[in-house]
């Protein structure tokens, strides 16, 4: 084998001293100096991670690398290696602790080496004697390398009396060394080199050997006993003791060597960890007192050198975290476009308690995803921790404490519910964030985090969150830029009630509640003889809902009143005035049970479309069973179907409900007499000129439909932008132009959530033709803007002609020509003539002629006055 000449020369020079030491991390990016290594050119490289990596690309080859080292007795050797393959008899690594020759493959080379791999997938210590005779002197456990991804550290100690001890740590951390055995061997006591020899077969093993953190140093005997590094309560009756060095199995698992005060006593089990020999798991029969300091005393536990601890003492405590002890106080859901923070979603946790809290077993959940359990981690009191995905953890490590979480939930840019769940499956904190919480059009577009203002008020909603004001765009692992006092002094309110079935009621409040008071069944009552529920449960994660179970079933078709008393929110504010809600069992929405009552399809630039619904029956309906859609004018296919609500919201008899993209925007532009009766929905498209509004039930049946047209607006309106179309009569056909009129100017051109400005009740005629009102003023002020010509005829097949004459007998308007009639109905005159001009103020005659195909005819004359307001 040809060895690189330059490196051979370096070896000769460096081997002259009688004492040598190796301390190599390859952090300088090469292996030619400090120390110098000898190898065949091209067989090795230092990779971008500053690790020594094999680079030999020859199948069925043996290659090596060596450096001078004369330490051979009273010596400690240590090396890290990663082998991303399952080793075999032709794929293994020999680490030569001592070698007589630089060429490790030379049959004449002698010394001691650790073989990693071979047939038994083990780590064992060998001696190589003159003539090439190889003897295994410590036989390691078989099968520990029987995996396709091996990462390990090896430590060998040669102590006084040539006592060799072989340790291996298959975690690769150096924190979990396990002894493979001890042997006394003094055959060879000298060395010239330390090195690595690799045996590889096929191309699948090329460049797959990684080495780092190599150390050869004099061995200093351990004469000190182990020290207690930490004691951590894991559960209410178990604790982990971590020593500063590996401890032996027998003494570390002796129960009498441990004792805890406060009446706890000795453990019932003591088990040294299978992978970390410095860690012992203790379990006790008695429980630790919550939040109280305990003192553990340890005697007789020995390290691997036989040194025993005497009267070692440590203080620990167990604490069951309560709601809001740890809160989510910063959310970075939309990193793009970047401001100065990394392009990495994260949430920040803050420990608001006075106790350190172990997050082991905790989880983060969104509406759709729950993370894997968090690892062991102690979050100190009044401190922060960044949680992010495992792939993004490195990007955020420069800001402070950060933990990469497996299956970290994706954070929805527009908002979702995030929950922090303890290992006991208790919701510690939840927040239902929304992009609207930014209150800033620029920052809500990305690059800025949402920060909690007052972490002492953790259950408040939007008013306790703001967009970060920090120049970076957020404050991960640091005090929030918007931090300040923001105490909750508002009383909670009962928003609504729903009944999934006849014996279950769910109440929704506007604030998270004190779960103990919320769970007291005596705090609730229901009218009409239903009385007090048999049970009450506050529902996680937000605790703003309470589920009641009834002993007396609800009856369909009846409206009840539910009352809540003695309820407080999580800040202690008492429920006061807003403590009742209507309740009923919902029915299936059928044709025209819920109708379209008002439509704004051409909003102003600062507003949005809205559709108002009206329940004209005596039944109760659920908005989650109703869908809104449109229809294609070209294909006639219904599309853009949107559910009005994902949770139960009841629509009671005679109620109005407004559906829009933003109820808040509608309420800014119009008077809303029932501000709670708004639902935000991603709306279908409704063109400004004409289009279709379609209501569907849960089975996809059309409940009501309106084919609207801009021309239905009052003819004297020049610009209908921001003016809604209102239904005149609930009980007359939806698809009738005469049943719609522009919302009155005096009502602000829209009446979302309450009775229409142009509403007229169903007027039943006693005679054949009547005009109401007899005096009207067509000025769109909401008062008598038009007159209705109501008719009632017997039989079918009747046809009408209606003409309006002025006082001089001149025809000014043909209102109907050969119009087929139902048994009852009406026509509307809005005070315009045939040329769509407003007629002069004065008296007019409405001449109605009704005839049928049998030749029978009857005429009616009714007077009406067109007036004006001054």
Describe this structure in words.
The structure is a single chain. The protein is mainly β and 870 residues long. The longest helix has 10 residues, at 5-14. Residues 1-20 and 762-767 have low confidence and may be disordered. It is built from 5 helices and 60 strands. Helix content is 3%, strand content 39%.
Brief synopsis:
With 870 residues, the protein is mostly beta strands.
Protein topology:
Blueprint: H1 5-14, E1 22-24, E2 38-39, E3 44-46, E4 52-54, E5 61-68, E6 75-83, E7 92-99, E8 111-117, E9 122-128, E10 134-138, E11 150-159, E12 163-169, E13 178-184, E14 193-200, E15 210-218, E16 228-235, E17 238-243, H2 249-252, E18 258-260, E19 269-272, E20 279-283, E21 293-298, E22 312-317, E23 326-332, E24 346-351, E25 357-358, E26 363-365, E27 378-379, E28 384-389, H3 393-396, E29 402-405, E30 415-421, E31 427-434, E32 450-452, E33 465-467, E34 494-501, E35 504-509, H4 515-518, E36 524-526, E37 535-539, E38 545-549, E39 560-564, E40 580-583, E41 594-600, E42 610-615, E43 621-622, E44 626-631, E45 638-643, E46 650-651, E47 656-660, H5 663-669, E48 678-680, E49 690-697, E50 702-709, E51 725-727, E52 740-742, E53 769-772, E54 775-776, E55 787-792, E56 798-806, E57 811-820, E58 824-829, E59 842-852, E60 857-866
Parallel strand pairs: 28-29, 47-48, 54-60
Antiparallel strand pairs: 1-15, 2-5, 3-4, 4-15, 5-14, 6-11, 6-15, 7-8, 7-14, 8-9, 9-10, 11-12, 12-13, 16-17, 17-20, 18-21, 19-20, 21-22, 23-24, 23-32, 24-28, 25-27, 26-30, 30-31, 32-33, 34-35, 35-38, 36-39, 37-38, 39-40, 41-42, 41-51, 42-47, 43-46, 44-45, 44-49, 49-50, 51-52, 53-55, 55-58, ...
């Amino acid at each position: 084998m040809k060895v690189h000449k330059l490196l051979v020369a370096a070896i000769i020079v460096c081997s002259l001293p009688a004492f040598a030491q190796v301390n190599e991390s390859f952090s300088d990016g090469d292996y030619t100096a400090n120390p110098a290594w000898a190898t065949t050119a091209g067989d090795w490289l230092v990779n971008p991670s500053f690790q020594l990596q094999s680079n030999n690309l020859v199948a069925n080859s043996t290659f090596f690398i060596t450096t001078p080292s004369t330490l051979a007795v009273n010596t400690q050797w240590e090396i890290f290696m990663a082998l991303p393959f399952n080793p075999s008899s032709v794929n293994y690594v020999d680490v030569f602790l001592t070698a007589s020759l630089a060429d490790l493959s030379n049959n004449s080379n002698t010394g001691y080496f650790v073989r990693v791999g071979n047939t038994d997938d083990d780590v064992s210590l060998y001696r190589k004697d003159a003539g090439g005779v190889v003897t295994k002197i410590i036989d390691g456990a078989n099968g520990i390398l029987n995996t396709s991804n091996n990462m390990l550290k090896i430590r060998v100690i040669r102590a006084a009396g040539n006592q060799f001890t072989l340790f291996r740590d298959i975690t690769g951390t150096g924190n979990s060394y396990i002894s493979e055995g001890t042997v006394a061997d003094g055959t060879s006591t000298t060395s010239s080199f330390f090195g690595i020899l690799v045996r590889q077969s096929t191309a699948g093993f090329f460049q797959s050997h990684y080495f780092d953190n190599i150390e050869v140093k004099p061995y200093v005997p351990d004469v000190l006993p182990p020290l207690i590094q930490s004691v951590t309560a894991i559960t209410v009756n178990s604790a982990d003791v971590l020593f500063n060095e590996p401890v032996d199995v027998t003494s570390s698992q002796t129960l009498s060597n441990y004792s805890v005060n406060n009446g706890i006593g000795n453990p019932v089990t003591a088990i040294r960890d299978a992978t970390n020999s410095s860690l012992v798991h203790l379990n006790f029969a008695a429980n630790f007192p919550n939040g109280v300091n305990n003192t553990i005393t340890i005697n007789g536990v020995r390290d691997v050198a036989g040194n025993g601890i005497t009267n070692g003492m440590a203080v620990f405590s167990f604490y069951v975290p309560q709601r809001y002890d740890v809160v989510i106080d910063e959310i970075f859901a939309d990193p793009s476009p970047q401001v100065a923070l990394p392009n990495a979603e994260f949430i920040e946790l803050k420990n608001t308690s006075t106790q350190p809290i172990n997050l082991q077993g905790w989880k983060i959940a969104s509406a759709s995803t729950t993370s894997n359990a968090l690892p062991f981690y102690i979050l100190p009191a009044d401190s922060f921790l960044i949680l992010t995905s495992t792939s993004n953890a490195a990007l955020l490590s420069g800001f402070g404490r950060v933990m990469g979480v497996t299956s970290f939930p994706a954070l929805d840019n527009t908002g979702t519910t995030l929950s922090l769940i303890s290992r006991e499956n208790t919701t510690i904190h939840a927040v239902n964030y929304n992009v609207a919480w930014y209150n800033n059009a620029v920052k809500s577009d990305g690059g800025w985090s949402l920060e909690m203002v007052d972490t002492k008020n953790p259950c408040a909603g939007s008013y306790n969150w703001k967009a970060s004001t920090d120049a970076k765009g957020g404050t991960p692992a640091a005090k929030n830029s918007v931090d300040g006092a923001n105490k909750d002094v508002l009383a909670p309110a009962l928003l609504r009630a729903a009944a999934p079935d006849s014996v279950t009621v769910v109440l929704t409040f506007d604030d998270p509640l004190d779960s103990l008071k919320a769970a007291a069944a005596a705090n609730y009552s229901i009218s009409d003889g239903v009385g007090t529920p048999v049970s009450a449960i506050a529902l996680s994660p937000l605790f703003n809902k309470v589920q009641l179970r009834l002993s007396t079933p609800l009856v369909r078709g009846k409206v009840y009143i539910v009352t809540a008393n003695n309820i407080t929110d999580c800040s202690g504010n008492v429920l006061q005035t807003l403590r009742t809600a209507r309740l009923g069992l919902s029915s299936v929405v059928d044709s025209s049970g819920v109708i379209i009552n008002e439509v704004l399809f051409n909003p102003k630039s600062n507003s949005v479309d809205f559709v108002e619904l009206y329940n004209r029956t005596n039944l109760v309906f659920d908005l989650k069973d109703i869908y809104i859609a449109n229809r294609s004018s070209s294909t006639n296919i219904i599309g853009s179907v949107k559910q009005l609500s994902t949770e139960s919201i009841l629509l009671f008899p005679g109620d109005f409900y407004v559906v829009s993209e933003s109820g808040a925007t509608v309420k800014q532009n119009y008077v809303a007499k029932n501000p709670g009766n708004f639902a935000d929905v991603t709306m279908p498209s409704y063109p400004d000129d004409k289009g279709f509004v379609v209501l569907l039930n849960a089975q996809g049946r059309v409940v009501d439909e309106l084919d609207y047209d801009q021309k239905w607006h009052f003819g004297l309106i020049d610009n209908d932008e921001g003016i809604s179309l209102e239904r005149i009569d609930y009980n007359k056909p939806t698809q009738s132009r005469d049943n719609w009129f522009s919302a009155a100017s005096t009502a602000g051109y829209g009446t979302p959530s309450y009775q229409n400005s142009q509403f007229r009740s169903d007027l039943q005629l006693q005679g054949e033709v009547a005009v109401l009102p007899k005096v009207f003023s067509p000025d769109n002020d909401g008062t008598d803007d038009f007159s209705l010509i109501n008719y009632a005829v017997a039989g079918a097949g009747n046809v009408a002609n209606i003409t309006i004459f002025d006082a001089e007998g001149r025809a000014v308007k043909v209102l109907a020509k050969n119009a087929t009639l139902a048994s009852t109905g009406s026509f509307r005159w809005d005070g315009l003539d045939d040329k769509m001009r407003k007629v002069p103020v004065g008296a007019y005659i409405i001449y109605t002629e009704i005839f049928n195909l049998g030749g029978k005819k009857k005429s009616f004359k009714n007077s009406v006055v067109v007036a004006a307001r001054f």
